[in-house]
Amino acid sequence: MQFILFLNLGGGEVVMIIFVILLLFGGKGIPNIARTLGKGMREFKDATDGIKRDIHNSTSGISEQVNEHIQEIKKEIDKEKP
């Protein structure tokens, strides 16, 4: 449903699209189309999740290093305070 909202389609437009799909593919072809579309969306989601996971794993070491440097700087500042 979010996809339809993203395209900014109204109710009449959605009904027209569904009607055209019914005319082109018939009632028996729609489950196959939906199944194929679902598999494609699942594969896309899995691929994007994998990319997000790789980016997170790559950058986690950097954030740890930054936090270590911040702690070192805080210690130096605390030593300088009277």
Please summarize what this structure is.
The protein has 82 residues and is mainly α. Helices cover 91% and strands 0% of the residues.
Could you give the order of the helices and strands?
Answer: HH
Largest sheet: none
Structurally, how many domains make up the residues? 1
> Which spans of ≥5 residues are poorly predicted at pLDDT below 50?
none
| End-to-end separation | 62 Å
Q: What is the number of helices?
A: 2
Can you give the helix content as a percent range?
A: over 70%
- Can you count the beta strands? 0
- Structural class by secondary-structure content: mainly alpha
**General shape:** elongated
β-sheet strand percentage: under 5%
What is the gyration radius calculated from CA atoms?
Answer: 26 Å
Q: Quote the average pLDDT.
A: 83
Q: Notable features of this structure?
A:
2 helices; mainly alpha; 82 residues; elongated; single chain
What does the model show?
The longest helix has 70 residues, at 11-80. Helices cover 91% and strands 0% of the residues. The protein has one domain (2-80). The chain has helices at residues 2-6, 11-80. The mean pLDDT is 83. The chain is mostly helical. It has two helices and no strands.
Outline the secondary-structure elements.
Blueprint: H1 2-6, H2 11-80
